[in-house]
Structure formats: C-alpha cells, structure tokens
Amino acid sequence: MKLPRWATALDVFAVVMALIAISVVIGGGFRVWVFENRVSVTDWWRPALWSAITIAIRHAIVRTQPLPQHVAASLIGWWRSEDRRVVLPIHLTSRLGVLAVGFLAVLLIGFPPEAANRWRIYSNELLDLPGRWDTGWYLTIATEGYKYVPNAASDYQQNIAFFPAFPMAVRYLSVVLGRQPLWTGVGISIISFYLALTYFLRLSRSLLRDEERATTAVALLAAYPFAVFFSAAYTEGLFLLTLMGAVYHFHKNQLLRAAFWGFLCGLSRPNGSLLSIVLAIMAVGPMWDAVKWRPILPPPPGWRAIGQRIIAAGSPGYGMLAFSAFIYKMTGNPFMWTAQNAAWGRTYRSLDSIVSDRVGFIANNGWYSYASTQTIDLFYLTAVLLALAAIWPVYRRFGLAFALFIPITILPPMAAGGLLSMGRVTSILFPVFLWLGAAVPPRHRTAWLMTFALLQGFVAVMFFTWRPLY
After folding, report:
1. Is 406 helix (H, G, I), strand (E, B) or coil?
2. What pTM was estimated for this model as a whole?
3. Is the pLDDT of residue 379 over 50?
C-alpha cells in the first residue's frame, strides 16, 4: 500500500525536525534571519518535540508503514535502483577525483606568486581547498547578506551581481551543519550534481531509447573539462539541477514540478530566466511539424493545456523577476544586478570583433603563439566551437527547443564579456552531451572520455592552485 502524500510529507517533516534537534545538541543551536524574521533554535527539545508530535499524529491516522520502515524502504529502493547503479559510480569518481587532483596540485605544484595575498578561511590546505575565486562572493552573501553601496565607481564589485539560490541554500543549511559554509557549499554542489545527473539519465533514456548511449551522455557530462565547478562551492551544480528538473518534468508534462524547478532556476543564475524561452517552445512545439524534427511533447489535448504549459514555462522568468523585485527594494533599480557586470569587465562587444581579434592574433603570431600565450582562451574557444557545432545536429535529433538552448546560453555572455567564463557557461549545456552520447560511436567513447577527464584534471590544477581561469 502506497502512503498518501500528506503522510509522506509528515514523515519528511518529522525527520527534518529530528535532524535539527541532533544538530542543536552537537552544535549548540543557531539563530538565522528568514525574510527579515529572526528564527532562533537554541533548545534541542523543541524540534524533538515537534518531531514526536508529528510522528504521533501520522501514525494515529495511518498505521501502515511506520516511519523507520518507510525510511528504510526508501533507502533500499534508492540503492537498488538502476539510476543509482549508473549514476553513483560516475558521480563519485568524477567529483572526488577532482578534489583529489586539486589537493595534490596544491601540495606538489603550489601557488603562483600573485596568489600570495589570496583570501583564506582555514590554515589547513585540505580544509581550505574549496575556498577559491568566486566562492568568496557566495560565502559573503551566505554569512552577511546582500549589500549595496550607492554611487560607487563603475569598477567597484558588489555582491548584488550574484543570484540568491545557491548562497541562500548555503546560509540555511550551514546553520544545521556545524556552521561550515564553505564545505556546506561543496556538499550542496556535489549532491545537486548527483541529482542533476539522475534527471539527465532519465531524459537521455527517454529521448535516445538506448541505455549505453544514455550512460555515455551522463559520463561525458561528468568528465567534461569544465565540470570542475560541480565539485566547488559554486552555483553550477544547483543551477544544473534546477535546469534538468524543469526540463525533465516539462518533458513528462508534470507542470507543477517543472514550475517549481524552473522558478529556482531563475533564482540560480542571471541566464536562468532564458530557460523560459526553451520551455515555451516545448509547450507549443506539438502545434507544428516542420523540417522533420520530432516534437518534445505529445500532442496537446487543447488550447487550455497549451495555456497551462505556457504559464509553467514562465517560471524561470518569474524567479528572475522575484530577485529583481528584491534588488529594486534595495537599490531603486530592479535590474541593478545587470549593471554590476561592468565591474567584472563584462561590457558589450560585437561577436564579430571577438572573432576578428583572435583571427588577427593568429594571423600575425601563429597558432603556437596563441596556444602557448593564451592557453585558457584557447580552451574556452574550443568549448564554444564544440557547442556551436552541436546546434544543427541537436536540432535534427531533438528539436528546436534544445537546439535554441545552446545559442541563448552562450551568445549573451559572449556579447557582454567575450570568452570570459565560457567554461562555466558551457558546462551546463546538456543538449551538447545528449548529442555526443548519441553520435559518438561505441569504439570512440573511451577516447572521448579519457580526453575529457585528462583535460578536467588540467582545469582542476589551474582552479585549485589559484591560476586564472578567466
């Protein structure tokens, strides 16, 4: 007999309260601000009492599947699931492998002279390993909140440029995890990446209808050179999870779940709101059949269903607007977060000038000079070219929505900052890996995976030893 959803919700609440009680016993309690309201939990018995009351109410009404049995059955079911068998080895090998390579690089290679004044949280190099680059901005938001200095210089960097989903998750989870925001952020990224890979595997199975190809797509995403950021206290892991959750549930016509993940996606990164365009095309895609592409969704039953899908498709945009409303209250300009991009060197440049700069440099100095003096730029250029090359085959195999996701993800940040941070941007382009999983012949899969993994090791060395990756 399957438990009612409300009973499952009560079980989850009881477990959460029990975990909070244990956290208070170990860590001494916490105080945190939630939407300008202070929440204080300093006595362990209060959450423990709520847990006990919830359990009593649930079992008084539904006596089947007591909580311990329910939890054990859920864990056993997860462990025996085919998703876990495929995803977990790929996930753990890649995520823990990146951290191991990064730590060895710190010990054996060390830091460049310009990193002598780097910020630190721990004196122990292992504990301080994830404390790199933009992680500091996320931790500042998590621990101190958003701050805005009006009339500051255009090159003065402010944390309102960073969207809230990841740092707020760090804030509220770290208070029950020993007040360790840095490693809480790493945990969020790694767990989010596991869940994102699970969603991606399910979507790949549905579209490719081949287990080996679907597994290859998952492995290539995890081995991608710039997948390093899924092992760091960065927003990419959570962003990919929200993205894949929204797309998968929309693909399955589960609109409430899709809207939930889509809203969080809009709160995760500035370009998260662009997912609304992709979902909108998925919503109306079945209305036509052009250029021999397969519709993502089955034919809709009517205009009402299409309207419901359109409303759900707007959820990423609603998330962005929610953050913009918060910024408006703080600064008086709802899109002040966009203006902050200039402080990081993101100013508009035409795409043709980006291309002509590199063509001119190579023409005057040669490929070797470009590769040896602008190595990271070459890496980013290669990643962008791979993504752009995937647009047409993705369109042919999977339709307009997935194909359009590629250019609307990479072209706006390129126009605003050239190849700056293109590694992070391309790491979440799931249609590219979906296409590679389908297109790479079985005899070449090992070579692709080895090449990706070796290059990811190189990127890990650069990232964890404070060598510029921008």
Report:
1. helix
2. 0.91
3. yes
